[in-house]
Amino acid sequence: MNEKARGQGLLSVEQALEALLTRAERIVDREEVALDEALGRVLAHGLASPQNVPPHDNSAMDGYAVRCADLAGGALRVGQRIPAGSQGVPLEPGTCARIFTGAPIPPGADAVVMQEHCRVAGDQVTVEQPASPGQHVRRAGEDITAGAEILAAGTRLRPQELGLAASVGLARLPVVRRPRVALFSTGDELVAPGEALGPGQIYNSNRYTLAGLLRNLGCEVLDLGAVEDTLEATREVLRRAAGACDLILTSGGVSVGEEDHVKAAVESLGALELWRIAVKPGKPLAFGSVDGTPFMGLPGNPVSSFATFCLFTRPFLLRRLGVQAVMPRVIPAESGFDWTRPGDRREYLRARLEPDAAGRTVVTLYPNQGSGVLTSTSWAEGFVIAPEGQVIRRGDPVSYIPFAELLS
Ligand SMILES: Nc1nc2c(c(=O)[nH]1)N[C@H]1C(S)=C(S)[C@@H](COP(=O)(O)OP(=O)(O)OC[C@H]3O[C@@H](n4cnc5c(N)ncnc54)[C@H](O)[C@@H]3O)O[C@H]1N2
Ligand code: MOO
Q: Is the shortest distance between the CB of 297 and ligand 1 below 6 Å?
C-alpha cells in the first residue's frame, strides 16, 4: 500500500483480511448427509478408505487373460469366460480366459492381451504380439490402499470428491453444518423487482446478487427482506437475526452519510468497526457483532457489494466452515489494455480473457468501471488487479482472478 493511502488511514486488503480471518470462528456443529446431498459441503473430518480400490486385480482391456510363460507354446485354448462382476477359476496350463474390462484376473494369469492382438479360431487363440507380465492388469489398491486418507478435513466436496467417496463404498459423509446467513437491505430508495418505481427509487439488486453468492457457497440464506429505515425497526431485525444465524450481512449505509440506521443499531446492540480499505470498488466496510453474532456491512454500490463479498465475505465464511485455502487463485496473464491513471487504492477491474488482433489471449476491460455499473460484472469473467500507484501497459504481466474461483 502506498504512503498516501496509509496517510488517509486506509487498511490494506491484506490487513482487512487478516483481521476478518482471525475472527472467523469455526462452526462446530456437524451432521451426516447422504452422498447425494453432499455436493458443495465441507468435510468435518478426514476420511480413510475402508478398502483397496480397485478391490481386486482386474483387466484394463477386453481380450484374453494369459500366463506369459505359456505363450511360447503356440495357440491357447479358451478355458473360461470372465465378464465384469464375476469371478474366474485358476488358469490351467496351456489355456487362457476370455476376459472383459474390469473383470477380475483369474489366479495364475499374469497379463491381458487385447483382443485386437489375437487371432481366434474356434476355441483356440493365437497371440500375435509379445506380452509381458503385468500388461493391462490394474492392480488391487493401485488407486487407493485400505486405510489411506482419501480426503482431509476442511475439503469442499466437488463432484470428483463425491465419486471418490463412493469408490470406497462410503454412503454418508460427515459435513459441517451449513452456515446460516441473515441478509437484509435498508434504504428508502429500494423497491423489490415486480413493483412500480416511485420518484427517486431504484430496484433492490444487491439482495439477489448477495443471496446468489451465499447460496453458491452452500449457505442457508435467512432473507429478512427490506427493513423499514428506523432505528427501532433495524434494532429489532438485528436482534431477531442474531439469535438465528452465523453472520448478519447487509449492504449499504456504511459510508459517511447519516441517512441509514444500520450503523447506529449495530453499535447499540454490540460493537462496530468502520473500516476504510485501500480497495476499489469497496472502500467502506463495516465489521462488528450483535449479541455475539458477527455482522458484516458491505457498501451499497452494486459492484462494490459484489466485489467485497468476493474479497472478504467469502473467505470469512469459508474459514468459519474450516476451509484452509480460502483465497482465490490468481492467474498470471497479459494485459490487453493501458491503465494510465492509477489511484491510491488497489483496483479490481471487471475483465475477461479474449484474443487480441494477433490471436494472443490477453485481458480486456469492460469500458465502464463505475461501481454502480452492474453490467460490468455480467460481461466480465474475472477481476484483473490494478495495483495502487502502478501504470499498466498493453503486454505487461497482470494478475487475473477468474470468477470461477469466486462463484462456487
Ligand atoms: N462523502 C463520501 N461519500 C462516499 C464515499 C466517501 O468516502 N465519502 N464513499 C463512496 C463509496 S467508495 C461507496 S462504495 C459508497 C458506499 O456507500 P454506502 O455503503 O453508504 O451505500 P449507500 O449510500 O446506502 O448506497 C450507495 C449506492 O448504492 C445503491 N444501493 C444501496 N443498496 C442497494 C441495493 N440493495 N440494491 C441496489 N443498489 C443499492 C444506493 O442507491 C446508492 O446509489 O459511498 C460513496 N460515497
Ligand atoms: O469503493 Mo466504492 O466501493 O469505490 O464504490
A: no
